[in-house]
Design a protein that fits this description.
Blueprint lengths: L14 E5 L5 H14 L4 E6 L2 H4 L6 E3 L6 H11 L6 E4 L8 E2 L6 H12 L5 E4 L19 H15 L3 E3 L2 H7 L4 H5 L18
Parallel strand pairs: 1-2, 1-6, 2-3, 3-4, 4-5, 6-7
Length: 203
């Protein structure tokens, strides 16, 4: 697959595309990017965990709840000649990480969404974040038995996120809907914008 590219550097872009590791995340990303491009929308790429190693394009925001693994993912990006993330997020302050914010306990996919909301994004598309047991990891091809537990984190904030989030597959697509041209063109009110949350954080 050719290296996916965003439309312009995140200043802020029109749409945040959040990419996890379930199903076929790069294929879902390509489909989401095409939809955004066809509708004249620029995107910012939010990438987490193992996908940090293999995503060949610009990463505007990288994030993980496993910061000890970043050195390994970074080495793969360096070996492949991929650019380093412009910003790198964890759930507390760590060396080599530029930003941090409290985790919502819904897996790294929800962590990406939280970051995007804190940055003011009102259009957020999930790729490779099905949150299902049968949404096999794109590399390990294993069932994710922890998915039901992590969905509880999503359930706690689902109502607040519903206007802003759409998904390409799985449980998240069923609960938030799939992105389409009408949603991308909509002006979504954001009367209570979020701020970065550093309170009550534990590693």
């Amino acid at each position: 697959m050719a290296a996916p590219q965003s439309q312009r550097s995140e200043s802020r872009a029109d749409v945040a595309i959040c990419v996890g590791g379930g199903n076929d995340p790069l294929a879902e990303y390509a489909a989401a990017l095409t939809l955004c491009t066809e509708n004249g929308k620029s995107v910012a790429n939010f990438i987490c965990n193992d996908t940090l190693a293999c995503f060949p394009g610009t990463i505007h925001h990288g994030a993980t709840l496993h910061p000890d693994k970043w050195v390994y993912w970074k080495s793969i990006r360096e070996r492949n000649g991929y650019p380093m993330p412009e910003r790198l997020w964890a759930h507390r302050s760590y060396d080599d990480f530029t930003n941090w914010t409290k985790d919502w306990q819904g897996s790294s996919g929800l962590f990406l969404v939280k970051i995007a909301r804190e940055l003011g994004y009102t259009h957020i598309v999930l790729c490779g974040i099905p949150m299902t047991e049968d949404g096999l990891h794109f590399e390990r091809r294993q069932h994710w038995t922890s998915a039901p537990g992590f969905r509880k984190g999503w359930a706690r904030v689902q109502g607040a996120l519903r206007p802003f989030v759409r998904s390409m597959s799985g449980w998240t697509a069923e609960h938030f809907g799939r992105p389409d041209s009408e949603w991308l063109a909509s002006d979504i009110p954001d009367p209570f914008p979020m701020k970065t949350n550093h309170s009550g954080v534990s590693a």
